[in-house]
Amino acid sequence: MTIGRLTIKSIRARPLILKLERPIVARIATISDWPVILIDLFTNEGVVGRSYLEPYTAKAMKYIVAALEDFGELLEGHAVAPTEIFELTRKSLHFVGYQGLSMIAVSGLDMAAWDALAKAANLPLCMLLGGTVGPVKAYNSNGLWLSDPAHLGEEAARLIQEGGFAGLKIRLGRTTADQDLRAIEAVRAAVGADVRLMADFNQGLDLAEALMRCQSVDSLGLDWIEEPIVYDNLDGYARLASQLKTPLQIGENFYGHRDLHRALQMKACDLVMPDFMRIGGVTGWLKSAAIAAAFGAPISTHLYPEVGAHVMRVSETSHWLEWQNWVNPILKQPYEIVEGMLHIPAVAGTGLDWDEAAIAVRD
After folding, report:
1. Mean pLDDT, 10 residues at a time, over the chain (363 residues)?
2. DSSP secondary structure string, 30-50?
3. Which domains can be identified in the chain, with CATH numbers?
4. Following DSSP, what letter does each residue of 205-256 receive, concatenated?
5. Model's pTM, two decimal places?
């Protein structure tokens, strides 16, 4: 088989709801049911490319699944050429816009196409992209939500032990700044000074509150302060970035590489962390990583650790991989974390394979 002969037969998209072991509790939302769309890209040559999407709200899945099924009809017989597919599918939705649900659907297909292409080449994705198989530095983002600060120290210790992590993410945005300070103090006391600590406000503040609250944690040695205000207020982010010593992190809500470029050009952040379902999958990440490298901006991942690990191996300014195990219950062979490093398996593609028995229980 040659890569050039790989052609699309059909696309299957299956919506599932998973239960989170540690529910998301942020100022803007509480989520215990986690929606996931499993994508299978079937080819006429027998190779199956796989990916998944995590669209946050269950209601959104019906629109995304419909778009993916439409892509299957559009692309039947088309070569598995991710760059061409990316442009073709985006242009097919031109009149409803390139962002939002359109980009999410395109991103899911893109990740599956890259997986299929790497499998056809019999290479791990990172090697197809010009890199090597190896470990990727990760922090644990599976907990430390807006719970009582008194309980966070014990939880932080458990999160470190889950994979020998050297970094954790804590969520901020409680009713008072003092409560957030006590939360950070509790975690720091439990894990020690050597563990890196990132703080995420999950867009929970308005600009006036953010100017005060971010200043209150600016001297605490955090690795970054993430998304204190609504994601599209780049003018507000530029103002915050100019006043803070702690690096400002944004990017999980960039819809495509132009959003990332605009934010860096406006000096709205010091760090970037694109989300694969919004940035444009692997294709969008590669474009974005090149822009981040040109600006000298460290780039981290958001969700999707299996795909993220591969592209971090070929990104010039790669920084941290965000580790969540939320889809592990339906994966045949979840990725492993050892001593805070995610280890890419030496298998073709991204290494994603579904546990159909576990999926059947949830259907």
Report:
1. 75 97 92 97 97 97 97 97 96 93 97 98 97 97 94 96 96 96 97 97 97 96 98 98 98 98 98 98 98 98 98 98 96 94 95 95 78
2. EEEEEEEEEEEEEETTS-EEE
3. 3-122 (3.30.390.10), 128-356 (3.20.20.120)
4. S-HHHHHHHHHHTTTS--SEEE--S-TT-HHHHHHHHHH-SSPEEE-TT--S
5. 0.96
